[in-house]
Give the backbone structure.
Amino acid sequence: MTRSSFVGLIFTLPLLPCLLTPVTNYAFADSSLNGPLPTTVLVRVVAHGAMVLGRDVGGARVTITDVANGHILATGLQQGESGDQNQIMRTPHMMEEPIYSSRPSAAFSTTLELQKPTLVEISAVGPLAYPAALQRTSQTLLLIPGQDLTNDGIVLHLHGYLVQIERPTPREALIAKDDVKLRASVRTLSGSLVRPHGDWDSRKIGIYGEVLIGNRIIERLQLFYDERSRAFEAPFFVPPSKEVPDGITLRVIATDLSTGNSGMDQADYPVVSERLPPKSVP
């Protein structure tokens, strides 16, 4: 054996036990990397271009569904305040800055136990206090186990307006050939008042009424804002009763092409030919 071979053997022998020992403590075998991880998801449902849907309008229902198998992972109601109007509507923001969570505002929050990255659909329906104005929206995204979505959370936008005919009262009998005032309120889906020169400026929104016989529009009404009633008004003429044996329909529409928000309310009214005499008091 040469000197060099002998020296090499001396330095090699201490390494043999290490080379022969099996390695079993792999990092990826850590149970914390493979077990389900709690993942908090916060969802906010807001009126597009307006405030958060809070308790004033009944809030919204939020549902989180696993796209792969259709299982509902969480569902519940968004309740709380509509948020700070000055912060949401008038304060400039950078893209990464929170808008809705810098002040108390309504939200839905849940903690899911996720085993793996999960593609989910998050849907919302609201405002729940106004069934005639219900809107639905949804968003699909990938949730990563242990990666919480908080602060503003996932923001879902509902488009529309709350339009309500206040006068005449729906299904109230109208007198033929009478002059009647149509009155309707218009608000955002979060319940904020639409009016001239406000954050939701009615001058930028098309708000008008229609008088219909069956499905035929016989008159279109230009509505004007009345500060005292905080509603929009216009007079109209009730057709002769012989022309409307089945009564008339009143419809009010609000639409904003710049935001895509639109809303409508309509009601039916019977028409009588003459005023009934007051009931005599015994």
Observations:
- The mean pLDDT is 89.
- Residues 161-272 form a domain with the Immunoglobulin-like fold (CATH 2.60.40.10).
- The chain has two domains: 33-158, 161-272.
